Amino acid sequence: MTFNRLLYRAALVSKVTSRSVFTSSKPDTANPNWVRVSLAFGTSAFLWGLLFKQHSTDVQEYKVRNGLE
């Protein structure tokens, strides 16, 4: 069996057995999921904190290596 034939078969099977990823109803913007909102903001704040901490560590190491401090 040629590669094109295998690829065609795989595409045909995946179309037949797959479900749509789209939902039929739109999310309610008047009533947000506060758990997901707080997780998103909390994760963002945590990552920014790690970024600033790493930057401070890197600057300190740079100063020590170059004899600036």
From TrEMBL:
<keyword id="KW-0999">Mitochondrion inner membrane</keyword>
<comment type="function">
    <text>Accessory subunit of the mitochondrial membrane respiratory chain NADH dehydrogenase (Complex I), that is believed not to be involved in catalysis. Complex I functions in the transfer of electrons from NADH to the respiratory chain. The immediate electron acceptor for the enzyme is believed to be ubiquinone.</text>
</comment>
<keyword id="KW-0813">Transport</keyword>
<dbReference type="InterPro" id="IPR026192">
    <property type="entry name" value="NDUFC1"/>
</dbReference>
<dbReference type="GO" id="GO:0005743">
    <property type="term" value="C:mitochondrial inner membrane"/>
</dbReference>
<keyword id="KW-0249">Electron transport</keyword>
<keyword id="KW-1133">Transmembrane helix</keyword>
<dbReference type="GO" id="GO:0045271">
    <property type="term" value="C:respiratory chain complex I"/>
</dbReference>
<comment type="similarity">
    <text>Belongs to the complex I NDUFC1 subunit family.</text>
</comment>
<protein>
    <recommendedName>
        <fullName>NADH dehydrogenase [ubiquinone] 1 subunit C1, mitochondrial</fullName>
    </recommendedName>
</protein>
<dbReference type="Pfam" id="PF15088">
    <property type="entry name" value="NADH_dh_m_C1"/>
</dbReference>
<comment type="subunit">
    <text>Complex I is composed of 45 different subunits.</text>
</comment>
<keyword id="KW-0472">Membrane</keyword>
<keyword id="KW-0809">Transit peptide</keyword>
<keyword id="KW-0496">Mitochondrion</keyword>
<keyword id="KW-0679">Respiratory chain</keyword>
<keyword id="KW-0812">Transmembrane</keyword>
